[in-house]
Amino acid sequence: MKRKASAIWNGGLKDGKGTLTTESGVLDSTPYSFSTRFEGEKGTNPEELIGASHAGCFSMALSMILGQVDLTPEKIETTATITLEQVAGGFSVTASHLDVTVTIPGADAAKFQEAAETAKANCPISKLLNAKITMDAKLIA
């Protein structure tokens, strides 16, 4: 399986602007710029998209792993916070923190925590990131 996304950038770093497009069409010439990435201007940026990817991937992996131990979640809510820091040699994504709340009536807390740790370590996006990955996982039983 292969998925494609593309970026077009016009101009210099601070005064330039770009667009992002995904093969599925979910992003279609979606604008991004220095100010959407570093100055809080409304719009997307690469780190936000990595966060969405990590949250989505983790949630699906957790659902699968919970199913393997006969736990079916009613809802998995995951927020990924991506940290971009200036380090020697430039900027780097140094961390992704997952905040997870899962509703599984009657679930065993130990089975849940084990499944969450397994998903954190093994979802494909976690494996892709060369960053510290932390997590706070809460069970609503």
Descriptive notes:
It is a single chain. With 141 residues, this protein is an alpha+beta fold. The protein has helices spanning 34-38, 46-68, 109-122, 124-128; strands spanning 5-10, 17-22, 30-33, 75-87, 90-103, 132-140. The chain has a three-stranded antiparallel beta sheet. The chain has a three-stranded mixed beta sheet with strand order 4-5-6, covered by helices on one side. Strand 1 and strand 2 (17-22) form a beta hairpin.
Provide a brief overview of the structure.
With 141 residues, the chain is of the alpha+beta class.
Structural class: alpha+beta
SS summary, helix count: 4
Could you tell me the strand content as a percent range? Answer: 35-45%
How much helix, percentage-wise, in residues?
25-40%
Ordered list of secondary-structure elements with their pairings:
Layout: E1 5-10, E2 17-22, E3 30-33, H1 34-38, H2 46-68, E4 75-87, E5 90-103, H3 109-122, H4 124-128, E6 132-140
Parallel strand pairs: 5-6
Antiparallel strand pairs: 1-2, 2-3, 4-5
List keywords for this structure.
elongated; 4 helices
